[in-house]
Amino acid sequence: MLGNWLLCDFHIHTSISDGRLPLDEVVDLYGAKGFDAISITDHILDSKTLKERQKKKEPIGAIKRENFQNYLQLLWKEAERAWEKYKMLLIPGAEITNNWKKYHILAIDIKEYIDPTLPAKKIVEEIHMQGAIAIACHPHHKATEGKQPYIHLWRYHKKYVTLFDAWEVANRDDLFNVIGLKKFNYIANSDFHEPWHLYSWKSLIGAERNPEAIKAAIRENSKVSVYLFRKEKPIEE
Ligand code: ZN
Ligand code: ZN
């Protein structure tokens, strides 16, 4: 709790896709740490990568189209519990993951399945038709993971810049200087997969505690602040 500033994380995975912890444990972890608003954004996956993983008998690590409404129902149920127990907002989301064409897009407040195989522009249009927020994920090379290749959105940023509501200027431990230099609308998220990812870059949003006000503040992007959420140091005797 920081006055009118809400402590937020809009990029969180659970064991429903490829995260380590089950949904309820993720909610309890963030709730107990005093977060004001989170979005659970498990992966949905492009058809080509999905087929490859099935062929190799690898874990899919994503929600399938036929399970998507069940996933949203689970999130809405947890959202109720998060609000009752912690006064924390849980906004249903998804990471629309195209590993073939190399773009990952967050949809915050998603209501219907969106096919990650679609072109990026079309995905963002569908997100907006659902009244959701579109965020360009980890849009440049990640220093912490070597030269990760998901930079399609950056490569074509001139055509995408006004399309997205915000770009990740920070993702977990990485800071994307290029996004700051371009003065794009920005947001900072943890891309949480493991418990230790909790201690990473987050966003403070100046907004009322409700999803519409938070979405409006992301679009407006005047009261958004990057915040490093650190582990408490043990008290010295
Ligand atoms: Zn991603
Ligand atoms: Zn992610």
Main features:
TIM Barrel, binds zinc ion, 25% strand, 8 helices, 237 residues, single chain, alpha/beta, 10-stranded mixed β-sheet
- Terminal Cα span: 27 Å
The CATH homologous superfamily: Metal-dependent hydrolases
CATH-scheme architecture: Alpha-Beta Barrel
User: What is the succession of H and E elements?
Assistant: EHEHHEEHEHHEEHEEHE
Largest sheet: 10 strands, mixed
CATH top level is: Alpha Beta
pLDDT < 50 stretches: none
| Percent in strands | 25-35%
Structure annotation, total helices:
8
**Share of residues in helices:** 25-40%
CATH fold topology: TIM Barrel
Enumerate the distinct ligands: zinc ion
Record field, number of beta strands: 10
Q: What overall geometry do the principal axes of the alpha carbons give?
A: globular
Q: What structural category characterises the helix and strand content?
A: alpha/beta
Integer count of domains: 1
Mean pLDDT score: 95
Q: Tell me the Rg in angstroms.
A: 17 Å
Tell me about this structure.
By secondary structure, this protein is of the alpha/beta class. It has one domain (6-210, 220-228): Alpha-Beta Barrel (TIM Barrel), CATH 3.20.20.140. Helix content is 30%, strand content 25%. It contains 8 helices and 10 strands. It has helices at 23-32, 47-55, 68-86, 120-129, 152-155, 157-160, 177-181, 211-220, and strands at residues 5-12, 37-45, 89-98, 103-108, 133-136, 166-171, 174-175, 186-189, 201-206, 224-228. Strands 1, 2, 3, 4, 5, 6, 7, 8, 9 and 10 form a 10-stranded mixed sheet that branches. Strand 3 (89-98) and strand 4 (103-108) form a beta hairpin. Helix 1 (23-32) packs parallel to helix 3 (68-86). It is globular and about 55 Å long. The protein starts with a strand and ends in a 9-residue tail after the last strand. The mean pLDDT is 95. The structure holds zinc ion (ZN) (2 copies). Residues 95, 104, 137-138 line the site of one zinc ion.
